[in-house]
Write the structure tokens for this entry.
Amino acid sequence: MNPLLPMIARTVVAAATLFAVALAAQAQGVAGHVEAGQKKAEMCIGCHGIPGYQNSFPEIHKVPMISGQTDKYIVASLVAYKKGERRHPTMRGIAGSLSEQDMADLAAFYAAQGGQAAAETPRAASAAALALIEKGACASCHGANFSKPIDPSYPKIGGQHADYLFVALRAYTVEGNNVIGRGNPIMAGIAKQFTPSEMREMARYLASVEGELKTVPQPRFR
């Protein structure tokens, strides 16, 4: 094991914690309500309420499972889309129409749908995949089984769709593009260590972990 890895992991955790505190502060004092969120989720279920539904931007990939995510992470993500720190035309348009109360209500609704879910495709972890995950110090922030983040504004990634995880990781490496990319400097520093093929290997492994995320199909899409 590289003797520098523990020091790198501690640095990542410390810096990421400061970033999370800044994000969480934006939603203080706004309590979400599950029932209200259910009524407001009409704009979301057309993608997030259909198992296996695919997005074609910036390439074809499954939309992320958000049922079971932490409410703080969902709010932080929506704020980032609204501010343009996460660049995705559709999501920015949706997030831009939401108030803080709307975001809190939607987050409460989706967080309440959590539970143990089957992994995408269970697979034996290769030594190469484990080495890449260790290099990225992923568990330092995303926690045990990559489903117990050390801060609720961090995502659960265990069991998430592999193709989405790859697209998300690669988005952190994009610079100077007004349409594609994510502006989190902590994740950018981590993602830029890896080649696209390494990101795919990491994403496949993370997707194989049994997690707490799922897609809850709406009656009209069953």
Observations:
- The radius of gyration is 17 Å.
- The beta strands are 54-55, 61-62, 86-87, 181-182.
- The longest strand covers residues 54-55.
